[in-house]
Amino acid sequence: MRIISGIYKSRKIVAPKNLPVRPTTDMAKESLFNILNNTYYFDELVVLDLFAGTGNISYEFASRGTEDILCVDQDFGCIKFINETANSFKMPIQTIKSDVFKYLEKSTFKANIIFADPPYNFTEEAFSKIPELVFQNNLLLEDGLLIIEHSKHTDLSNLQNFSYTKSYGGNKFSFFENL
User: Fold this and answer.
1) In terms of Cα–Cα distance, which of 142, 147, 143, 138 is closest to 176?
2) Lipoprotein: present as a keyword of the record (predicted)?
3) Rounded Cα gap, residues 66 and 12, in angstroms
4) Which of 48, 69, 118, 131 lies at 20 to 30 Å from 56 by C-alpha?
C-alpha cells in the first residue's frame, strides 16, 4: 500500500502479513479522497477511523494535513503497527484498542469524518449498528460524513441517514450524514 498524496506522497507502507486486514485499494482510496477534497480542508478535519486495520486511511489523512486522527481497532497487532508507523512518520495519530461497537456505545469523540471499514462478511444487522450508534450518540460534527466501506454485494441504502454510494471495482463506499 502507498500514500497517494500530501507530504508523504508515494511512500510505501508494508504491513506484516499476519494482520487480519484487507486494506483499501489504492484506486478506491484515491477516488474517495478526490470526493473529500472537493468538500473539506484536510487541515481542519477531525477524523475517526473505525476498524482501522493497517491505518491506511489515517495515513492518507495525516499526509494531507489532518492533525486530529483517532484509530480504533480490536486487534493488538493492528494497533501496534499503526502506532509504529505513525511514530516513524511523526504523524498525529492516536489509537484505541477496543471493540468498535463497545467504543461507539460509550464514545463522546466527535469528528467531521468517521470512516468505517468493517469485515466484508458482516451481517446487515452488524452494518446497521454503525450508523445507528454514530447518529444516536451524535458523534458527527456539523456537515460531517460517516463513510462505510463494504463489498459491492452489500446494499446499505436502507439504513438510517444514508445519503449515497460510490462504487470502485469490488469496493463500495456508502455515505451517511445528518439529514
Assistant:
1) 147
2) no
3) 19
4) 131
Whether pTM exceeds 0.90 = yes
CA distance 23 to 129: 22
Q: Model confidence over 59-118: pLDDT tens digits?
A: 999 999 999 999 999 999 999 999 999 999 999 999 999 999 999 999 999 999 999 999
Fold of 26-176: Rossmann fold (3.40.50)
Cα angle 134, 38, 131; round to 5: 10
Distance, in Å, from the CA atom of 119 to the CA atom of 19, rounded to the nearest integer, reads 13
Q: Is the dihedral of CA 106, 55, 132, 135 positive or negative?
A: positive
Task: Give me the residues paired with residue 165 across strands.
Answer: 174
First to last CA, the chain: 35
146, 162 in Cβ contact below 8 A? no
CA atoms within 13 A on the CB side of 39: 12
In angstroms, rounded to a whole number, what is the distance separating the alpha carbons of residues 4 and 12? Answer: 9
Residue type, position 137, single letter: N
Radius of gyration of the chain (CA): 15
Which grid cell sits at 35? 470526493
List Cα–Cα distances, 10 to 5, 49, 60, 89, 120, in angstroms: 7, 21, 11, 13, 27
